[in-house]
Amino acid sequence: MKLVTVLMLTALPLYCYAGIGCDLLDDMISTTIDPDVDVTEYINNLKDFLPGEETEKAYTFMKECFLHQSEETLEKFSKTQQAIYSSFWCARH
């Protein structure tokens, strides 16, 4: 879970720097950390971006991990996301 989160946060500035997919990525991250979105709804929203069953299982596992986090952890993650979006690389997009 930690590795997935680190990789996802590392990739954010690259996507934003390229100017592609920021809105899609933002929506995906928002639904990932939203405790009101259940796993089924989450997977249905991402169905077009999941190339296979193994990827779907990984995203299901990731969403379940976020559902088991405290509100404090989710708020910190959200703040980190906003810090990345406010960074030099994403500010232009």
Automatic annotation (TrEMBL):
User: Quick one: where is this thing mainly located?
Assistant: secreted
> What keywords does the record list, in alphabetical order?
Secreted, Signal
Q: Where in the cell is it found?
A: Secreted
Spell out the GO cellular component terms annotated for this protein, sorted alphabetically and separated by semicolons. extracellular space
Which Pfam families does its entry note?
Answer: Uteroglobin
Q: Which InterPro entries match?
A: Secretoglobin, Secretoglobin_sf
Q: Where is the signal peptide, in residue numbers?
A: 1-18
What GO terms describe the biological role, i.e. biological process, of this protein? androgen receptor signaling pathway
Which protein are we looking at? Mammaglobin-A-like isoform X6
Please name the source species: Phyllostomus discolor (pale spear-nosed bat)
Classification from the root reads: Eukaryota, Metazoa, Chordata, Craniata, Vertebrata
